[in-house]
Amino acid sequence: MKSSVFEQLISSERFLRYQAATANNNRKAIILYRYNLQLSQELFSMISMFEIILRNKIDQEVAQNDWLRDAIQPGGIFNTPLCVKTRNIIDEKYSKIHRNRSYSHGKLIAELNFGLWTNLFQPNQYQAILNMGKDINEIAVLSSVSPLMRFSGRESKRERIHRVLGEINQIRNRIAHHEPVCFNRRVGRHTRKDTYYIRRKYQLILNMLKDMNVDTDSLFYGLDHVLKICNKVDAL
Which phi and psi (to 5°) does residue 183 adopt? Predict the structure, then answer.
């Protein structure tokens, strides 16, 4: 495809940063754009798997039938002013499934997004679950991820898990909103190609999965080409 046509399709403003990152070489700019798409696709697939594993690990740790539905009922652990946002999110999804007369605990879990599971590690939500005698901190050991995060000695394990999940959710949202992931976000108004950002997030995902006792080599066998594409970006 001619670069002029490509530019028209994706917009001049969007294409400009890829041109700037490749010294105005239009052929390389198109290649870089494609590499960015491949990186986004690859990492989003990994994050999708991560999200499924995370919610299942939390559910298994709580190990109480229909605890999410019960949590939003009168007297439920999230039915308090301190957890009102979490309660409202769950209630919206529960009501939708219930109206369709197809409710199951598994369907409710599947309806809740990454942000909800991350927010369970906020102080009020975490304490509400802890009051049930369930400690969702137990989903991970944080030995593998610790070298990547620079945790302070003052942070609790809950705070550390919340911060790790927040970082993963950050890149998930960037990809979901079609923002590029192959640029240095701090230099030159996002016009310098740089794979450090995505390499770090990629490693963070792998290490967190390992800390949740997941065999990542087997899980992503044949699916993970992130570093190979990063190397292509660096060599472009």
Answer: -120, 155
Nearest to 226 by CA among 213, 212, 214, 216: 216
- 153-185: buried (b, 16+ CB within 10 Å) or exposed (e) per residue? eeeeebbbbbebbebbbebbebbeeeebbbbee
pLDDT tens by residue, the chain, 236 residues: 666 667 667 677 777 888 888 888 989 989 999 999 999 999 999 999 999 999 999 999 998 889 999 999 999 999 999 999 999 999 999 998 988 778 899 999 999 999 999 999 999 999 999 999 999 999 999 999 999 988 888 999 999 999 999 999 999 999 999 888 988 665 555 568 889 989 999 999 999 999 999 999 999 998 899 999 999 999 99
Q: Residue written as tokens 């001619």?
A: 2
CA distance 82 to 150: 30
Contact indicator for 66, 37 with CB cutoff of 8 Å: no
Residues 6+ apart with CB under 8 A from 192: 20, 21, 183, 184
Residue 89's alpha-carbon distances to 17, 120, 140, 203, in angstroms, are 37, 12, 25, 30
Give pTM, 2 decimals.
Answer: 0.89
